[in-house]
Amino acid sequence: MSYSRDYVVTLRIFEPTVVHSELQDEQVGDNRARVEEQVSSDADQRLISLPPSPVAESFRNTPIFLPASQTSDGVDRYCPAQEDIRGWEALESLTEHTSKATLDIIAPKSARRRAASRRAEWLQDAKDTRVFTRVSAWDVPPSWWLFFSLSEDQIITNESDAGLRVLIRTDILAASARMEWAAETVADKSKVVDMVEQTSILAQWVDSFDMNSVLELDLGGMSDVLWPNEAPELVDSWATALSNDDPESAVASFQKYAAMWEQLNLYARSS
Predict the structure, then answer these.
(1) Assessment of whether the complete model's pTM goes beyond 0.70
(2) Rounded CA gap, 233 and 146, in Å?
């Protein structure tokens, strides 16, 4: 049994398999648990290796399927694991925000050179350089909630021996329309620079996928902590108040959300 990374929250795009010729011979099934176990086991091995190996060398082409039996339209979809690609991006961010002494311990120069070389090869040779998955630790970034409407979207709650797991799914056209509206509203009327940048990036990201894709928010091992909560409503109230030129309500919603985030931040540090 691999180490459980319960703090990970994931945003995935599942694109129809029919638009990917390389998947035509794949046997579509509910393989998510198996792929997640493989990815976690690989991460465990790299974590204890000497020297450390911070970036996965496999899984780029490993599909996580969303079978037709789990969709309302009977379409098979998939999301590639892409652990190596996201590892390259994380390492680049780490390089920008970590001291050289610390960086050399957790990501030796040899590993950084190898990752940079493989990323350059991928960018040069790959026909599709989109990243299907975004991850967060401990919490859902407020900008992610702008993709969803909990009163309209599909919410799946699974109880098992491992605990509660909540998945929220919406079709990509609805997600794109919501984020486009939010991005325009925030850009015009908000002074929160991070939100202006994040909503703009997310709007462009989601528009790069097939129009029959599905966007999924997976609360993972944080489901017990993050569900249910007021965060989606508060973020929506904040954006709506901005749109309605109601700064007092916008500030009130944002401050209430920030207070919740601070509590969760304490929870993360205590863990």
Answers:
(1) yes
(2) 10
